[in-house]
Amino acid sequence: MSTTWETVIGLEIHAQLATRSKIFSGSATAYGAxxxxxxxxxxxxxxxxxxxxxxxxxxxxVMFGLAIDAxxxxxxxxxxxxxxxxxxxxxxxxxxxxxxIVAGGHIDIVLDDGTTKRIGVTRAHxxxxxxxxxxxxxxxxxxxxxxxxxxxxxxxxxxxxxxxAKEAVAYMKKVHTLVRYLGICDGxxxxxxxxxxxxxxxxxxxxxxxxTRAEIKNINSFRYVEKAILYEVxxxxxxxxxxxxxxxxxxxFDPDKGETRSMRSKEEANDYRYFPDPDLLPVLLTDxxxxxxxxxxxxxxxxxxxxxxxQYGLSVYDAGVLTASRELADYYETVVRELGGEAKxxxxxxxxxxxxxxxxxGLEIQSSPINAATLAGMLRRIADNTISGKIAKDVxxxxxxxxxxxxxxxxxxxxxxxxxxxxxxxxxDAVMAANPGQLAEYRSGKDKLFGFFxxxxxxxxxxxxxxxxxxxxxxxxxxx
Amino acid sequence: MGIxxxxxxxxxxxxxxxxxxxELTRALLERVQRSQPAxxxxxxxxxxxxxxxxxxxxxxxxxxxxxxxxxxxxxxKDIFCTRDVLTTCGSRMLANFVAPYDATAVARLRAAGxxxxxxxxxxxxxxxxxxxxxHFGPVANPWDLKRVPGGxxxxxxxxxAARLVPGATATDTGGSIRQPAALCGVTGLKPxxxxxxxxxxxxxxxxxxxxxxxTLTAEDSALMLSAMAGYDERDSTSVDMPVPxxxxxxxxxxxxxxxxxxxxxxxxxxxxxxxxxxxxxxxELQAQGATxxxxxxxxxxxxxxxxxxxxxxxxxxxxxxxxxxxxxxxxENPRDLKDLYERSRGEGFGAEVKRRxxxxxxxxxxGYYDAYYLKAQRVRQxxxxxxxxxxxxxxxxxxxxxxTVAFELGVKDDNPVTMYLNDIYTIGANLAGxxxxxxxxxFAHGLPAGMxxxxxxxxxxRLLNVxxxxxxxxxxxxxxxxGYAS
Amino acid sequence: MAELKPDDIARIAHLARLALTDAEVPAYTxxxxxxxxxxxxxxxVETSGVEPMSHSLPGAAARLRPDQVTETDHRAEYQRxxxxxxxGLYLVPRVIE
Lengths: 480, 486, 97
Prior knowledge:
The complex is a heterotrimer. Chain A is an alpha+beta fold. Chain A has helices at about 55-65, 165-180, 220-240, 285-295, 300-310, 315-320, 325-340, 345-360, 370-385, 390-400, 405-415, 420-435, 435-445, 450-460, 465-480; strands at about 5-15, 70, 75, 80, 90-95, 100-110, 115-130, 130-135, 140-145, 150-160, 195-205, 215-220, 250-255, 260, 275, 285. In chain A, the strands form four sheets. In chain A, strands 2-6-7-10-1-11-12-13-14 form a nine-stranded mixed sheet. Chain A has a three-stranded antiparallel sheet with strand order 5-4-15, with no helix packed on it. By secondary structure, chain B is α/β, with parallel strands linked by helices. Chain B has one domain (about 5-260, about 390-480): Amidase signature (AS) enzymes. In chain B, β7, α8 and β8 form a beta-alpha-beta unit. Chain C has a domain at about 5-40. Helices cover about 30% and strands about 5% of the residues of chain C. Chain C is built from three helices and two strands. A two-stranded antiparallel sheet of chain C has the order 1-2. In chain C, a hairpin with a 2-residue loop joins β1 and β2 (about 90-95). Chain C is flat, with a radius of gyration of 23 Å. Chain C starts with 5 loop residues before the first helix and ends with a strand. The model of chain C has no long low-confidence stretch (mean pLDDT about 95). Classes of the chains: A alpha+beta, B alpha/beta, C mainly alpha. Chains in contact: A-B, A-C, B-C. The interface between A and B is large, with 29 and 44 residues. β9 (about 140-145) of chain A pairs antiparallel with β2 of chain C, so a sheet runs across the interface.
């Protein structure tokens, strides 16, 4: 008898807040500086120095809370999480423990079957990031760079309500979209601005009790989240089915091997001795403050998608894809505005060829070689029948590689569509004359050959004949 | 002429041209050097820098600049970071630590023109009541070299009592300004929590630590506090409230002043030889028009156990940064990271500091947090409530500063609790964040006895006023230890 | 409260990253037991309904600093106090993950 297993996942997402200065000091947060050149006395934990809270980090956390419909704590408290590690200069991390700034929100994700699932967000709290350790070229030593120490983070903790790796990825992507919409995080996963820990366990389907969980630390790509969870779930099931027990532990995902492994250095039982940080007073937020922040909130992805469906007549799917990032949605809306309509045509191109080319070249929409106005210029030529949709694909490719606008390419290559009756009729006549056999067959009832004549005529016009017009004229001529 | 004793007198002489800052500085540096073998009040003497600062002060005076502290010598407790000068906190851990910045209090006194002669000895990381825990050796009490000066600001109190400097900075977490001031026969003021910036003051227990001053007179404390106090944007717990000119209110008459006699402080632990001069001092205040009311703070006796949870808990975390990585002592040839941490800290910290770190680690650890830490935080609230109730009835509370006079060096070594109980009268003000002042009120067994005033938050002006009115009609505060007379 | 045992001291010392000598363990066991005994008095106090007090500035709130970069690079100066650095990094014995 074999058990069917259910996967239970909770994610802790760490998003670096896009402030200029650190959460408790005036050091810059810019990425990529020389080691320890952006670590001041506070970041280094020098004797005698004290933390002072960055108001912008608070505002960003409140924005996030409002975006997920959570409660904003009128009083939240910073606590010290005490442990020794070289990348933690003070010997404690300033975080929020019992009283986080944001509690009890939710995020909706769309599942494969198109249904929506609501995932609870337990809490989101402010904390400081740690520094970085490096081991390369230091002859058996570890080097510590504290530039990142003190960078503001918001840790977003989900309920254990995710039931598959796919759901976890969908949730993480949704949070990623949200923080970028809000402008509170740059979302750069290579630089570690957005990363997560996954708490994974399995239990027999129908069981109420959670299984023992493993925490996979510091996963910094959507792909790895999926792989790490799939591997971990399989591992846990294997352990249980071969009579073993899953141990509660911290694990690390090794992307090269595609496996998770136990982190021996963190195996030791931690006792963090949290207590309220006496250097920082409670954060007290008034209703007025919260309403002010609410007034500055941008349109959120779900709101924007609903508006796209309503305003532009798009499908829920298209609207969802177009609102996946604020930049993409802005690009799309610029195209439609420039074009003065043709919202569906614009959606097809943005989600179709443009998306495919961006993906092929590994580019973000912000760095697309074809900007919104240029794309609108080409779509206008489809709309006014200057070119056909088919020719447009060639024009688009040329625009992409040559970085020029549609009209220039259409002119230079003579791609203007033939909309002149007599020119098309001339071409049809020539095709009919060259294919007397097929003509006879068609006329004797073999309708299928209509397509053959379309193809031949298109070929004769180098694809420039207006397809609708061609059809109409061909029908007339063939029927004699 | 002889060297003036107090800051106010020095200031008058400097402004009147009777003496220059360089002359004063040179004379006091000479006393410091002479005193060192017997007293050991200083950890570092910055003679060269002091003379340069004094010369600069003389130029400012010559240019017509005025200011009550301009050109007046002083010294800092070695817990305050001083730019480019060794800041040891009395510890082997920081024996070679050169601070790259000035504490806010240091910067403010520097700006006011005070001349720093050096850094004063103290109990290691301000943990102690006898100055015996210093890595740089104990400080002797100028009144009796076999006795302790008190702690943790023992160097500050001894230096002022011995007339090495007319004023010194100090810090007070559980009595570390007031207790040594009492034992050395000088005036010590611990301001309201948040009044003086903690930035640059190496933390012991962040919610209790407060910087203040030790001087001969209340007037001098007022002058120094006026310059040191005030909001600092680099300390989140510093309070944004205007700083009064503390010297301006000194002469206010005491008529109508309601003094609360703190019942719990006149318990069986108080040496009757201290109680006698203290009662006489209180009678003097009454003679000036103050009324006396007996006040009881029933939870106050719990302040010692409360403190010995809260202070170690905070210290265990505050001292985690001393790990041998970025500054401070590092052990020889660490085998691995754990060895680096454990030996650097094990060798770098002294016995009392380690005991407090471990006590704090224990009371915060899993399974003990609620029973100890949270419980102590609740009792702390009860104690603060007791004070609030008392201040609804009286303007300030009066009592002894310490239960006994200065004890002999080395006598309280085995049981830390005996030493801790020495702070029984001073800790309450720290737990509640209140200003408190100790001033000499006579002698017991031939040694100085201290009287303590505790006031409501931000009542420094009143405390200094009452102390000054008392000092106008008494001269205990001007009695110098034999051999240290000016 | 239970008396502290040498094992407790060893566990606490490790948590606090303090190397203790063999002689120190019994000494701390005794002295810390005395401290915990003193502290144990608190257990007798009735505190139900009393809010824990973590600072003495009632009603005070964290000040929110404007988001401005106010610091410049002082690495060389700050690393003068460091026991071991290389290429701008603070060095420690190899950390294995």
